Amino acid sequence: MIAGLRAWGAAVGALALLTALAVATVDLRTDISFFLPDARTAETQALTQGLSQSGSVIMARLSGLPPQDLAALSDRFVQRMRGVEGVALVRNGRPHLPPDLREFLVANRYLLGPPVAPDHFETGSLEAGIARSLAGLGTTAGWAFRDLIPRDPMGRTRTVLTGLGRVEGPARRHGVWMDAADRALILIRLTAPSGDISAQSTALRAMETALAGETSVRLETSGPGLFALRASERIRAEMKCATLIASAAVALLLLAVFRAPRLLLLAGVPAGAGILTGILATQAIFGSVHGVAITFGAVLSGVAVDYPVHLFGHRRAGEAATATARRLGRPLLIGALTTAAGLAALTQSSFPGLAQIGVLAGVGMAVAYSVSRYLLSALAGAPPAPTVPAPGFWQGLWRRLGRRHGLRAAALGGFACLFALACLAAWRSDAPVWERDLSKLSVADSASRSLDGELRAALRLPDVRRAVLVIGDSDQTVLARQSALLGPLDDAVAAGRLGGYVAAARVLPTLAEQRARQAAMPNNSVLSGRLAAAAAAIDGVSAETFAPFADDIARQRGAEPLTPQAVAAGPLGPVFAAPWPVGAAGEDWAGLIALIPPAAFDATAYPWARTIDLAAVAGGIVQIYRDEALRLLAIGLAIGCVCLAIGIRAPGRIVRVLIPPVGAVALTAALLLAAGVPLTLFHLLAFLLVAGIGVDYSLFYPDYSADPEEGMRGLRSVAACCGTSVAVFATLAASSLPVLSAIGTVVAIGAALSFSLTVCTAGRAPSRAA
Amino acid sequence: MISGIRVLAAAVLLTAAGTAQAATWDLAALSDALSRRGNETVPFREERFVSFYDAPIVTTGTVRRDGDTIEKRTEQPTQETVLIQDDTVRVSTPEEGAQIVGIDDHPVLEGLVAALRATLAGRVEGLTDAFDVRLDGSRGDWTLMLVPRADRTAEALRSIALRGRAGRVRVIEILAGNGDRSVMTLLRDGG
Questions:
Q1: Distance CA A15, CA A156 (A)
Q2: pTM
Q3: In chain B, whose CA is at the least distance from the CA of A538?
Q4: pLDDT digits (tens, 9 = 90+) for B70-109
Q5: How far is CA A102 from the centre of its chain?
Q6: A297-313: string of b/e by CB count within 10 Å (b at 16+)?
Q7: pLDDT at site A120
Q8: DSSP A162
Q9: What is the DSSP letter of A522?
Q10: What value of ipTM does the predicted structure carry?
Q11: Nearest residue of chain B to residue A70 (CA atoms)
């Protein structure tokens, strides 16, 4: 007993240590990167780029007050948010230029923006520019920016600014953006990327604080980062709830079947150790762990929860726990190996998320097996007393099942008929076999997706369905080609076919163009001479006034031209779409021009430009993802079968063992398709779990020729495993999250079918029947 | 008969005016006097002085008050309309069309808007939130000095001085932090 306590202490200590290690070292990711492949084409990278660029965007909508009060509130809200750390830009429709951005634009005004006229620095132009600036002092804008005149008498800053802000925002009421229903619209850009969940949650809290006391005001927010934040919060909440309900159900079920509270503690040890080790292994290999991988990896290696049940349930009266473990070692090994082999194939996926699931669950299975086989007996308790009373119910059931092989054969036929009917229904169904919409893979519900679309349209953000991708052999080529497109793009805007666009080349000319501009700038003495001549021609100004202008030109003339990287790292960064290298070698570069609806712009005339549909690209990724998963799962299945064959050797038994998992997966898939449910990647993963469960059931289920006591124990432990699986996954099936409910439904149905098929196909005991 | 009533009414009004005149000249009285003026359109001439330019920049046009809306229309040398309505300032020029200017971004504008609204629409007392307000002189020749309280504003706006006679504002002088200044003279009484 004391030894048992010590073992328990060691087990709990080890689990605590693993948990602490995982908490301390794991870099948990929850962004969209899980779904994206190691992008190889410019198109798929455009998706990543697009997502990461808009990643830090938060769209907000305020309602609940009369328009005028709401406009005032919008201003107060914006003012408060601008002071929040991590917030790069806040806009509500009022012209706003952050001081650092203003300084950046002023300081680099001749390197940035539209071309500079060749005679810009001639005496005549300077004189005209100065005169214009002075005359402009009579206007509101000229007076407001008068401090800039000595530094920028030519008004170049205004030219650059005008070019920057050409995109028309939403309509304004009382000076701020409002939608058709008079709800105030606000756009916030964070410095952190969308994957940074804690930054999102900090920003969200700051927004709520900024509205503190405004009880009647309703704040609605959306954005890719918030999606990730809310998804992880919801998954956590739903998983917590499901875990609670499922744990209670499992505990009650195991207690009712075995009447041994100790089993409840035992059941969690191998799976817990496996999942924690799996997480640590994933972290070690990938450098981070995706939240979705943990969820699925944990669910998949959850098969191991059955191992202690088998070890406990199969234990003969008076048998030492180590002896039971030794006796069951072979089926345990074959079952674990088969499942682990299936998972191992996933590690070869080009999708980091899928590969992570493979590693996490594969390692998890291996560890869970080792713990169950070699360590669990120490916890199972020393006294091998008649462990469990042999209830008459199970014995009676076993005897009856053994006798009715006719009925079992009929049931098998029934399942075959059901399969045929389901296949027929699926064949005739109009519903697609595969889900094509990437958003369905997302964990967001449809209400928040539609809010996102509404806000995106109201704020006139770029359309995800249309963008122009420009390819070149360097970032400079991409910029040059983009600037060749600016004319046609502006024409389309002027004609009303295009709502606006965001292009890097609009702001940043190529290095060559910047150098040409620098070469066209006169040197300091020439410029000073011309300035003196220009000033002399105008009454009331002296040439010294414009010394800051001469200094500024001298500085810009000698400055290092701006690279896209430098601009992206500066105050313009949050709104600048820098070109990026395609492929590992970086031989190609790509740049994305975002189009704002109506986005009727065609780039087919340019061989180096493509009009792309990011949603279709995303859909294509889903297809690649699913095809790859399907291929890898097939490979995994084949390896699993080989493992099974090597482990079992007897051909007849191999077929019998394979019927339940294969039959359960096929029948579940057919039933889903017959019901018009398009399959997703999550269904495929769930099938893998069903297969693992099915193999275990048929391995641990005794032949009907077995000793009645032995048979009873086998039937009881497999039935308990099936009962717990169905309880757990039926709870998940009730989840409101499509992902969880898909897995729950598949596994709950699959586990029940696996059990039924196992019962029907187990060895028929010919010796006794004869 | 009707003329009799008219005379009576005039007498009553005169008496009331006399009573008001006899009372102390303070912000409440100024506010009262300003708010008694109805909607009107007044021509203005504005001179702006900037450190780097020795000549004043002269503009002329009209200021119109219509309820809570104030419109400053510059005719010479460049056409421009500044429409102050609610909390919005809309600046329109023939070339660029209407543009909404955030008051917050231009503290000088903020001062101008506050001063114009307060004095032309008679809401002087509301000014004490944002300004230190001092009223000097008599009803016949008063000066209202506004000095912004917020440091943020003070950098760009040192003070606003309004001079007038009874309910009529004659001169608005705005002094910027760097010494630049604008003097707007309202030329004629509209009503």
A1: 66
A2: 0.69
A3: B53
A4: 888 999 888 899 888 766 677 787 776 666 665 555 656 6
A5: 35
A6: bbbbbbbbbbbbbbbbb
A7: 94
A8: H
A9: P
A10: 0.80
A11: B87
